[in-house]
Amino acid sequence: MQRNSLMFLIMALMAAFLLAGCSTPGEPEELVYGGNVQADDDDDPYVPLITEGVDVGNEAPDFTLADTYGDDVVLSTLRGKPVLLYFWATGCVYCEEQHPRMQDFHETYGDSLSVISVNIGDDPDLINAYMGENGLTFPCLVADAAMQAAYEANSVPLALVLDAEGLVTFNNHPGYLTETQLQEEF
After folding, report:
1. Strand partners, 66
2. What tens digit of pLDDT does each residue of 52-72 get?
3. pLDDT of 70-89, one tens digit each?
4. Is 71 helix (H, G, I), strand (E, B) or coil?
5. 7, 49, 131, 181, 183 from 119: Cα distances, Å
6. By three-state DSSP, how is residue 82 classified?
7. What Å distances lie between residue 106 and 12, 35, 183, CA to CA?
8. Which domains does the chain have, with CATH numbers?
9. Which of 136, 152, 161, 181 is the most exposed place for a label (fewest CB within 10 A)?
10. What is the pTM of this model?
């Protein structure tokens, strides 16, 4: 009796898989990232499910953090031009996929936008080695517990855009930010 039930279940599952594989595709779904409809020419597969950290429209919490060379950086001293804060970690596969985009932003908009990465959980020597191996030239700060808590940076990648006055204009997990969105934000 149990054998017949098991055979019926297996056959039903096989039929379901066959039917699913033979379905006709419908209209492509509209992808939405951070409340914005994604342009068709951007083919990044990420669909953010969670928005973390400081709410859009609020002032970003000020911080003083050491970069990977031990020099202090104070967020409020960067006012006067927009800032892209990018939280990441060396063991994060999704971060690794986003690094080329962040590097492009740094190279393309570096005169009008400060790209500041914030590493969570890694040793500065490891970070410097990783960045060198991957051709990353944007500055990298090392997060402390207070900064991580203030930004609710509990998962990476996480990207925030601050306007020239320090207000958050974009806050998105998993750190997906297209060039179109970046241009719209500043």
Report:
1. 72
2. 458 889 999 999 999 999 999
3. 999 999 999 999 999 999 99
4. coil
5. 52, 22, 11, 23, 24
6. coil
7. 53, 24, 13
8. 49-185 (3.40.30.10)
9. 152
10. 0.69
